[in-house]
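User: Can you predict the 3D structure for this chain?
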Amino acid sequence: MTEQTRTVQITFDCADPAGLAAFWATTLGYRLQDPPGGFESWEQALDAMGVPPERRKDASAVVDPAGTGPRLFFQRVPEGKQVKNRVHLDVRAAPGLSGDARMAALEAEAERLVSHGATRLQRHEPAPPLGAGHLIMADPEGNEFCLD
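Assistant: Here is the predicted structure, written as structure tokens:
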């Protein structure tokens, strides 16, 4: 039997799928996913699928415009976040940089994301040889991620 590679979708349970999708689209340079083929809008598609109006804000998705990154899917759930994430995203905000230049780039990105609803949680200073330094952040619903 030959092994196959797999693609992944990253799914977020949340209270506000559209809001969280907009945040992550801004963070990653993604865009909202287009409606299915044959439909000019999501409203048309949801009408055709028979989705009742009260359920139309239950999900959202963003995609990498270049088609290389994973799709992010956001689904409404009734409960709020309870504990620290066991899996998180590392947003590569300072590729190729080190030391003070790296941390300055991370700080600038943190400031940008805070203006879009993120929360800054912790700063980890560079600790060579393995620790390049990073910032721990939370998205608008409290999901932790790192600026790395």
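Helices lie at 17-28, 42-49, 99-114. The beta strands are 9-14, 31-32, 59-63, 71-76, 89-91, 119-124, 134-138, 144-147.
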